[in-house]
Amino acid sequence: MKWCAKCLYPESSAVKLSFDEKGVCSGCSVNEQKAEIDWDKRAEMLKEIVETYRSKDGSNYDCIIPVSGGKDSHYQTYYMTKKLGLKPLLVTYHGNNYLEVGEENLKNMRNVFDVDHMIFSPSVEVLKKLNRICFKLMGDMNWHAHAGIFSTPVQVAVKFNIPLIIWGEHGRLDLGGQYSLNDLVEMTARDILEHCKRGYDWDSMTDEGLKKLGRPELSEGLTARDLFCYKYPDMRDIARVGVRGLYLGNYISWDANKQTKFVIDNYNFKISEQSFDRTYRKMSNLDDMHENGIHDYLKYIKFGYGRATDHASKDIRLGIMTREEGIEMVKKYDHVKPRDLYRWLEYVGMKEEEFDRVCDTFRDPKVWRKNDKGEWEKDNMWDDKK
Questions:
Q1: DSSP string, 185-199
Q2: What is the homologous superfamily of the domain 37-250 according to CATH?
Q3: Which residues in the chain are classed under CATH 3.40.50.620?
Q4: pTM for the predicted model, two decimal places
Q5: In terms of DSSP H, where are the helices of the chain?
Q6: CB burial class (10 A; 0-12, 13-18, 19+) of residue 263?
Q7: Measured distance CA(116)–CA(133) in Å, rounded
Q8: pLDDT tens digit string along 22-66?
Q9: Which H helix or E strand runs over 90?
Q10: Can you tell me the distance from the alpha carbon of 311 to that of 329, in angstroms, rounded to the nearest whole number?
């Protein structure tokens, strides 16, 4: 196994990486571009773009901002309302597993930014069924959240004729360097389907769809009417409205730590008072109590690393943590089986033994092996032989 010489990402990363001749990953290489970019010029570029979408007669919203209520959501909304003077419509896909502090933050946004906020909450029974199907199908019970977050706001854009959508940072650009910051990548249906939705669309979750995938035993009786919010709009409607999704991280130098402090100090954003089992950060993923927990534990099972690796790698790139300090965070957190597992097992009606058995089917054989005692083991970046 190879690890980045600068951050902590392994070559088995869920977000695909490449390494240069010095052993530095593509995510770090793209991050280094930030020092070369004229961010004032980029900010002016964004201002010029959004001005063309401002409602000319004030009869409609100027843009849509998809929000979870988290730190990034607060900063996106601050930037659009206070810096650029737009009137946005906030749109939230609510996956039903918010932490209490996450719910408070979500409700906070309407008041502190004086904006309209649309929250879509799917049927809880449908959500439980999707949790079970997607855990067994792809080792990701949160597929519904990835799909809903990236489809629901686009549906609203089409329905209300609001062409401009403002996202935060592009996740795979930021983590793995999928694109250059100079590409100014924008939202596409293909990117959402292939990456955000893991290559599965809404109809994969119906009985007929699961039969086509060769997994009829996972059927939960879901129909098209149950899965409406996960459908990306027809491309003819996208073209008619002129829907365009921009990533704010292409136009401002994205620094989650500084931005979080800013929205805490100025807009009443709250971090978790409780520590997480699998990461040292308390400011991220407050909209889903399982995102930092068993959802991330599954990433560790599949790819051999977890949320502490993600967060420490970000902080190493920002220059606020050394690689050695990051390795200590990984040692402490990445392997932990989190306590929220038991809440989720009760939520979906599953036994821990079944959970563990299904988890093992997703272990990457390039990462994991069984030792003489029949226990799973893998190489680590701190092993003496590395």
A1: ----HHHIIIIITTT
A2: HUPs (3.40.50.620)
A3: 37-250
A4: 0.95
A5: 26-32, 39-51, 71-78, 100-113, 124-138, 143-159, 171-176, 189-191, 207-212, 235-241, 256-267, 294-303, 307-317, 323-333, 340-348, 352-360
A6: buried
A7: 34
A8: 999 999 999 999 999 999 999 999 999 999 999 989 899 999 999
A9: strand 88-93
A10: 9
Torsion of CA 105, 107, 110, 116, to 10 degrees: 130
Q: Which residues contact 1 (CB under 8 A, 6 or more apart)?
A: 10, 11, 12, 304, 366, 367, 378, 379
| Encoded tokens for 131 | 């949790």
Backbone angles phi, psi at 165, to 5 degrees: -120, 130
* Spatial distance between the Cα atoms of 355 and 353, rounded to a whole number of angstroms: 5
225-258 per-position pLDDT tens digit: 999 999 999 999 999 999 999 999 999 999 999 9
Q: What is the pLDDT of residues 307-343, one digit of tens each?
A: 999 999 999 999 999 999 999 999 999 999 999 999 9
33 with 181: CB under 8 angstroms?
yes
Cα–Cα dist 162/149, whole Å: 17
**Residue in 128, 127, 123, 108 with CA at minimum distance from that of residue 67:** 108
181 to each of 9, 43, 340, how far by Cα in Å? 20, 14, 36
pLDDT band at 384 (very low <50, low <70, confident <90, very high): low
Asked whether residue 134 carries a pLDDT value surpassing 80, the answer given is yes
Check if the beta carbon of residue 333 is closer than 8 Å to that of residue 8: no
Provide the pairing of β-strand 244-247 with 164-167.
parallel
Report yes or no: 281 and 251 within 8 Å, Cβ to Cβ. Answer: no
Angle, CA 111 vertex, CA 53 and CA 228 arms, to 5°: 60
CA distance 181 to 31: 8
Torsions phi, psi for 344 (to 5 deg): -65, -40
Instruction: Tell which residue, 161, 156, 291, has the closest CA to residue 228.
Output: 156
